[in-house]
Specification:
This protein has a single domain, classed as GAF domain (Beta-Lactamase). Helices cover 53% and strands 20% of the residues. With 184 residues, the chain is α+β, with helices and mostly antiparallel strands.
């Protein structure tokens, strides 16, 4: 493993630890979602992030939180993402939702799906990472991290990204169980 890969793995582990602390300390996921996305995006050297969940009535995905480090250039893409409702069979977030496996691309336009990929490219984004927030038995959402430039993926990095999603999923499950216990 190269020094850059080791540093990347360490940044991701540290960001995941902070994200877990934020989630455990919050009364609701929505209270800390943007801060969690920011930590994960910065650790992965990405400039934009979103958290997608399924709207069961519409049978579509909905971005319930986002973070942008793009400045004014990214505002149109960010606003559009918040109102975009892709069906559960459209785009990379949907692919991850169905497969529960992460996706990593360094070529966003052909790999992400139209028309969102063109809008992301207009905001200067070229690569992306998508991973499921899950446990062995439940899927809570999909994190989307987009970057101006991403290095090529290694199998080890993809496994580390998947592990982040599992760790976050178990914390969300733990928090939901705690809330249900208090209600009974």
């Amino acid at each position: 493993m190269t020094d850059d890969q080791l540093a990347s793995k360490a940044r991701l582990a540290q960001a995941t630890g902070i994200a877990i602390e934020l989630l455990r300390g919050a009364s609701q996921l929505e209270d800390v979602a943007e801060a969690v996305l920011e930590r994960l995006a910065r650790a992965a050297r990405c400039e934009w992030a979103a958290y997608w969940v399924v709207d069961p009535q519409a049978r579509a995905l909905r971005a319930v939180a986002s973070w942008s480090g793009l400045g004014p250039q990214g505002q149109p893409f960010d606003r559009e993402t918040r109102v975009c409702i892709p069906f559960t069979n459209q785009g990379n977030a949907a692919k991850v939702w169905r497969s529960r496996k992460p996706i990593w691309t360094t070529n966003l336009v052909p790999d992400m799906g139209l028309p969102r990929s063109l809008r992301a490219a207009a905001a200067g984004l070229r690569g992306g990472i998508w991973f499921a927030v899950k446990t062995d038995t439940a899927l809570y959402g999909v994190v989307e991290l987009l970057a101006r430039e991403l290095p090529s993926i290694t199998t080890e990095t993809l496994v580390a990204i998947e592990r982040v999603g599992s760790r976050l999923g178990y914390v969300i499950e733990e928090r939901r169980s705690e809330r249900q216990s208090r209600l009974h």
